[in-house]
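Need tokens for this chain, all 686 residues.
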Amino acid sequence: MGAAGQGVRLLTRLFGVSALAGALTAGLVVPIAGFAGFGSEEVVDTLRSLPKPLNSQPAAVRTRIVAADGSLIANLYDENRAPVGIAHIAPVMRQAIISIEDSRFYEHGALDLQGTLRALIRNQAEGTSQGGSSITQQYVKLTLLENAKTPAEQRAATAPTYERKLVELRYAIAVEQQQSKDQILDGYLNLANFGDGTYGVQAAAQHYFGVTAAQLTLPQAAMLAGIVKNPSGYDPVTHPEQALQRRNTVIERMLQLGNITLAEANTALRAPVLDLSQVHPILNGCANSPYPFYCEYVVSKLLDNPALGDTPQQRDQYLKTGGLTIRTSLDPRIQAAAQKSIDEHTRPTDNTVAAITVVQPGTGLVEAMVQSKPYGEGRDETAYNYNVEKSYAGGYGGFQNGSTMKAFTIAAAIQQGIPIDHMINSPDQIDLSGVPYRTCDGWTRDSNYTPKNSTKSGDFTMVDAARYSVNTYFLQLSRETGLCSIATIAGKLGMYNAQTLHPLDQVVSMTLGVGYVTPLMLSNAYATFADRGVYCAPLLVTSITDESGKSLATPGQACKQVLEPWVADGVNRVLSAVMQPGGTGGNLSFGSWDLAGKTGTINQNLAVWFSGYTPNLAAAAVVADATPPYTNLMYGHQLNGQDITDPTGSGTAGPLWESAMRGALQGLPRESFVAPPARVLGNLPN
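Here are the structure tokens for all 686 residues:
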């Protein structure tokens, strides 16, 4: 008896005539081999009792994080997938997958009886195990696997049992009743594994050929169609010979079915299977981003967003599977200007670290974030983001900000009605041992404190004291204002301890910068002065849309007037003097821009700062010892491969700030600070 006769005899023996007839009436025939343990009635009862509706959860789709101009920052995914409608899949791709996987797809129901019998007969005759699943059955299997969330569900979705085949078949019948053939094919092509980490035909087309699914050619479509049977074995990147043979099999099958002409087949067969130099890897995660530190900070903030899930774990899963488009504040042009400054003034091999953050006043948009140590785990690399607080991979948690803190003392004095021509005798050294300073909770003292100036001494106005960064002036001024008002203003401008996340300590030396802050904090606080007292919380994520284009909740812009405009105008007037000839920032002025800023150098020069701004942009740059806990003196350290002999805010950190701002401001309108009222100026000219 021939193989066909053996197959029919097997069918009759296992099912019985009535059971087989009933199954055929229902429009299905189940895979036969291996059902010897079932009676015919058991099989039919099992089929009837299985659930019908297939609850298809949304497939895992990669999320894209993009810059303000829409350029890609990073992909986040568990499965690299970009769904596309069937109208946007090339007809030749549809023909190729149907030809090789289920040539009678549009003619049969949930199961192809001819294909199943053919596979059964071949298996019996050759002792092999060849599948006869229809595209609908494969779609069901892929859907069940995609819906499986636990290891147990995943094992059940792939178990090599005929019970699973029965479940899939019953679901397939329901799918055929609920969806059109085109819808089923569309779902299948968007779920299928196309090798080398790609899922769905669109991602595969982009990855292997740099085209969309609509642009696929015959040899390209045939290669992709051939992969789905064995995504690892026919992976064209790792197994090009096997992929070529499989692709040619698909082309020959398409010719056999009359879907292509002989000339088309011959041309396609001569085409190379893949040009490896043209493969476009869809890199996953922030580590592969051109802006890894910024990217990781964005992701860490997203994990705090309750709109993405109830827990950080749920949010992380949604980020990797939800097909979101996350638009951020990063401006590639400004980022490039800041990075160019880092590249010109530092080297990764330096035993110092430099960092710069650029913020837009009036919006809080964080437009650039760069640092001198590259991202990674190797020598001279780091995973620490030195621009942000410790809780977000911010290294040790910021650096002491030195005299940049004097800006908040200036604001407190102006707010209390002290004019900026206020004169104080400021000797080279002052004894403040035991001198009481008002705090929000009472008084504080330092039992042994005799600070000195590092620049000039004498009688100074507030303007000249800022111009020369006179320590003894501001220590006396902060006693007049009280520390509480300085701390309150600093807090309103987003300044807090980057290590503890607590408010800055109210100590006698507060105005000289004893708290640990970050470039992001400082640049954003100074941006408040630039926008005349309007504080905007740092804004990194400007919008989130899901796969359908629906907007999801994001904190968005949060701006508030925290200082009277005239107070900020007074601060801008004082800090503008720093940028004038003779000031500590005088060598950093450029063009005709209205510039204001402040140097910062902490005790023993462990870190040096320059923070400055125009009405358009604010930036803070820091250079510090690169070894936690950052307690090594920078004397003898290297910056740009050269020994640092005299680390200062203006001479060491200042050039990084200046070149970054010079590039960032190109093309922006020149705006001017508003002059403060006469009561703020005192007897000084406007």
